[in-house]
Input
Amino acid sequence: MSARPDPIGFLMRDSWRTDAVLAHKLELAGGRDAPAAARAAIARLLAGRVNEFDLFDTTVLVSELITNAVRHGHAGTDETVILHVALAPGVLRVEVCDQGPGFTPAAVPGARAEGGGNGLVLLDRMSTAWGVAGDDGTCVWFERELA
Output
C-alpha cells in the first residue's frame, strides 16, 4: 500500500450530518480488482439497511467511482483507495478518495467522443447531489435520497 497520507474525506472530519446511524471507512487496494472488491464490500455493508433498488444503484455508482480512482487517479495495487459510507435517516453519502491529481468536473457531465466518461453521467443522474474535493488527493462524493 501507498505511504502517502490517508485521504480522510469529509465524513471522517465530522462535517456531515450529526444524525448518521452508520459511518464506515473501507480501505481497498487499488488496481483492477478494486471495483469488484468495492461492490462486494458495499453490498455487505448496506444489506438490510437500504432497499434493493437503492443498494443496486449505490453499488453501480461505487463501482464507477472506484474504477475512476484506478484509471484516472492511478491507484495501482500498491495504492490505497478509501471508501467512506454514511447512512442517516433518508439519505446515504459515499466518498471515494484517492491520491490522484484531481479534476474539475464539467457543469453537465457527458460521455467523451473517444469513449468512456459515462461514470460521471450516471453519478449525475442517479444521485441527489455530488461533487469533487481536491484538498487532500481527490475525493468524489455523492449523496442519494433513499426510498
